[in-house]
Every structure is written in C-alpha cells, then in structure tokens.
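*** Query protein ***
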Amino acid sequence: MGRKLGNYEVLDEIGRGGMAIVYKARQRSLDRIVAIKELDLKRSASDPRAGDRFELEAKAAASLHHPSIITVHDFWERGKKAYIAMEFVDGLELKEALDVTGALDPRLATQIVIQVCGALQYAHERGIIHRDVKPGNIMLSRKGDVKLADFGIVFVSGTTDLTTTGAIIGTPSYMSPEQIRDEEPGPASDVFSLGVVLYEAVTGSRPFSAQNEVALTHAILRKRPIKPRRLNKRISPRLSRVIMKCLRKKSHKRYATMDEMEAALVKTLPRRTPDAARQIARLVMVAEEPGTQEATIPLEPVRVTSRTRHLLSLSGLVSLAVLFIILIIPPLPWKGDLNSVLVDSQPSRLTIVAYPWAEVILDGKSLGYTPRVAPYQVPSGRHKLVLRNPELGTRTFDLTLKPGGSASVKIDFLEKKR
C-alpha cells in the first residue's frame, strides 16, 4: 500500500470494523512486522468515550507482559485518528478456524483454552478484567502459539469505568449475566465468557442463542444451556461438568479464578495428549487451505457446525506412508468439517436457518447443528435434508442443487406454538 504512519510503512489491510481498521505494517527503525490498529475518532463521535477506551486499551495491554497476550509497542494520535502498534501474529482468529472446521477435538480445544486461562489469570492479578473474551479475540499462530488480544473494553480495578452506564458494550453472545446487568465485573465474569468459548469450540454451538438481542440476554440471564455432552458424545463427562460450572448464572458458583478453571481443565485431559503447538499449527494450516475462505464469516456470526470426527483428533505421529500421500496429492477444498472432502469441482452452497436449533442431516449423514451462518458446501444434485429437534419435531426436504449454485432453507420450529 505504501502509506506511511510515522515510523511505520503500511503493507496491507488485514481487518476492518465499525470504527477501526487493522493494518499489517513494517516498523522501519527496527525492521520488524507489526499490526497497527487505527481508530477514526470522527466516526466514533456517537460514542464520546471511545477514544479514551482506545487509549486505555493500549495502556492496559502495554502493562501486560505474558507469552499468551499480544504485546503492545506504541500508541499515538494524529489529527482525528488514534493508533496502537502491536505484535503481529501470523495466523488467524479462533473464530475463523471454527467457521471453517466446526467443532474441534475436545482435547485440542481444552489445550487452547488452558493457555487463555493463564493469560487472563496474569491480567486479573494486575487488576485487569478483559470483558470481551470471545473466539475473535483469541489468535492462533502458524507456530502453534495462542494469543489473547483486544483489551478495548477492559475494566481496571480502582479506576473509573469508561463504558456508558446502562449500555451493553461487548459481544452479547459471550457476556456474563453480571455484564448484562451492568454490575462491576470480577474474574468470574471472564470465567463465564471463556466457558462460552470452550462450549462453542467443542460442540460447534453457542450455549445461548436467540433471534434478537433482547431474547439473547434473557437466555443468558435465565435459561440453562444444553449440556455439551448431549451435542457431542466425544466430550468427556468431566469436561462437560467443567464447562457447565463456568456457565452458572451466579458468579460465586463458578470457578473463582482462572487458576481454578485451568486446574479443572488439566484434569480432564488424558495422560497421552498430542502436542498442542503442533496441533494448533496444523489447524491454522488447514483452515487457510485454498477453498476454505468462503466459509469464513468476517463479522460476528451465530454459528453451529459439525460435531463429526475432526482430523485433529489423530495423533501427531504420522506414518511415512501417509506423509508420502499428503505430499504427492494436491489439496482439495475442505467442507465444514475436516474429515469430509468434496470431490465435486463445483459444489453448491446450502444455507440453513432453523430456530431455535436443529440437527442437520443430509442424505443420512449428520452435518452438525444450527444456528450456522457459514453455508455448507455440498455436491450438486439431489439430496434429502432432515432438520431434527428432539423436543420440537422433524422436518424433511427434497433438494435439487445446481453446480456452483446456492440454496437456503429456513424454518421456525416454534411457529405453530405462537
């Protein structure tokens, strides 16, 4: 791009939100690659404290020096814009990986979350509550590192809260009940949010979903989520119990600290667990394979994907024969899960919306659960689609999909009850 930002040369735009843009840049004085987050103060005029929070984000993150927290290098303002220069992570967000792969192997998901526990414990010990823990703020690198990012709405103990009283700032799907009630948060609030992340990572489903924000906040405050093990039998009873404890409505009934949550998670892992770094690196590589980009939703989706067997559940020890096959056979586009590769050169895109949720069964094979934003990529031709909700019934559809075309199926299981 060639644009200059002080001592930095912008190389590419790598992310964009409502008020901020993230660039990949080179710091010329030290000849290193960084990420620069740019906040447009003009566009944030409707939120008068956005600039103050942006500065607080920079200062809070800069005060934290932990291997699983993205390092902040610099902060400055120029004109009507503010900037944060930070560590560049060569990889992708956990959110992007889940969009492509669906539910992860429970062991791998647990190992990722354990590293986030360590980062949050470190922050909590310094009086910093993250308040926006979600898959989009957890980075996975090509080297197998896990990094917690975006301290944009942190609460710093002993300081004035810079969020607007009565306003919900954050990502509702991952908010704790006390955040929704606009109460002062503590470590247990991040425990709840990280529990939501882990639930989604091992089931492909968020524990709380609804058609609108009001119904969603009601579900978080009042409704008990489906136990993870009911959605994915590969989740151990012990891990399922740990997740459900994280999601208790009353904060004092959750784990009091991230250390407690981490210790409980460690106990769920078998003695022989594949190396996390190698599996994470493999996950990043697979999620970035050509043909998977269309399945990545750049904005905040509500999605549930396949609970079928994940390639990452295989041991990291690969025989020479398998390695030989991998090297000589060109990659094929990945479907929603990593065990299913579509041979169809022009697969169709199938979007399914079933409220409140349903198991998706195509030609007798389970593809996972709704809600899901990322379309399924399926071979063209005739198919039998079954949407099943054990409590609300079953719907069957006969579909004819054209090569390279798209189709959508929408159903509200509660419609007859209204």
